Amino acid sequence: MTDGDSRPALLLVHGAWHGAWCWEKLTSVLEADGWRTRAVDLPSAGEQAGVQDDAQAVLRELETIDGPVVVVAHSYGGIPVSQAVAEAGNVSRIVYLAAYQLEAGESLLGFHGAPVSPEPGGFVAVPDNPVALFYGDALPSEADEAAKRLVPQSARSFNDTLTAAGWHTVPSTYVLCEDDQALPAQSQQIMAARSGAVHRIEGSHSPFLSKPAELAALLASITLQSDS
Q: What does DSSP assign to residue 126?
């Protein structure tokens, strides 16, 4: 295997209600195999912030990383990542992990056909029964601990539309979670058609918690292919 320092770094971007903490099991596996990883906290989880604020947080983190970067976006995180990558110069690939790979002009609510408020305020509460929704195939004790760390999500982030979609200029790969209760596989398939390659993982919405070794191996394979 090539020297870890010569491989792209991995920047991990969480979804709604979560934080950088959700990647801890995955980063342990990746770093044990020599990968450089970073994880960023998006302000919309817990603060009155929108997609552009989150995109700026991703951009600031990208600016601190030397060499090429593969950005891994989970769920809602795909939206600010698409925006940020359109402005970044060091991203070699985007990996959308059960994520929103939206087009410019689209929003999360708009993608689902829900009404969009012109001036959204407040927060979207943590969903009922988040263990079943997000962590259905994780160890119950780990799922319960993760659910306790979830925070309200800014309503703005679900309403804001993308002004640019970086996947048009940067290669992208979609990882579809086949038994996802939060973002159904049918919806994922629509967005996966926008990616250059598609992989599938059996299981629910959060394989970084339930299948960190399998996900790490898949990300390593995708990243090495990007680097070749």
A: P
Rounded distance, CA 180 to CA 16, Å? 15
Tens digit of each residue's pLDDT (9 = 90 or more) over 143-161:
999 999 999 999 999 999 9
Superfamily of domain 4-227: Alpha/Beta hydrolase fold, catalytic domain (3.40.50.1820)
- Which among 206, 108, 118 is positioned nearest to 158, based on CA atoms? 108
Q: Residue ranges of the domains in the chain?
A: 4-227
The label of the residue with tokens 């992989």 reads 199
| Residue tagged 């399998």 (tokens) | 214
Query: Structure tokens of 146?
Result: 């993760």
DSSP category for residue 23: G
Burial of residue 202 (CB within 10 Å: 0-12, 13-18, 19+) is exposed
Confidence at 5, pLDDT banded by 50, 70, 90: low
Helix (H, G, I), strand (E, B) or coil at 15: coil
State the pLDDT confidence band at 227, using cuts at 50, 70 and 90.
low
Please say whether the beta carbons of 209 and 143 come within 8 A. Answer: yes
Please write the tens of the pLDDT for every residue from 38-92. Answer: 999 999 999 999 999 999 999 999 999 999 999 999 999 999 999 999 999 999 9
What counts of helices (H) and strands (E) characterise the chain?
Answer: 10, 8
Q: Where are the beta strands (DSSP E) in the chain?
A: 9-13, 37-40, 69-74, 91-97, 123-124, 153-154, 172-177, 197-201
